[in-house]
Amino acid sequence: MAIILSTFLRGYRGKTTDFALTSQHHRTIVAHFLNQGKWNDFLFQDALRNSVAYLIYREATISGQPIFCIVDDTIASHTKLSSQALHPIEAAYFHQSHLKGRQDYGHQIVSVMLSAMESL
Q: Residue 20's domain spans which residues?
């Protein structure tokens, strides 16, 4: 949970020093866990997705409210190509930007949000 919180608090910069704000463990322990840990990403994602979906469906059943679904795709644009940047960021590519109407260089994320509450 500390890793997830640290990515949203001050704006995640991709550094393990960000974890020091929310974790009770030293940042080198967290870095070792992320780099050397033996875990299955797909099993983790499925377990997390299933537990969150269960909580939302349970809340909808208890409250009698419908489940709202929002799908959003966002591009975090970069002003320079990785080969030209002073501090390059890995895995940036060209994506079609619907807002700009052209290709945009950066990271793209597609998110699905579910809610069973009146206000979204």
A: 1-38
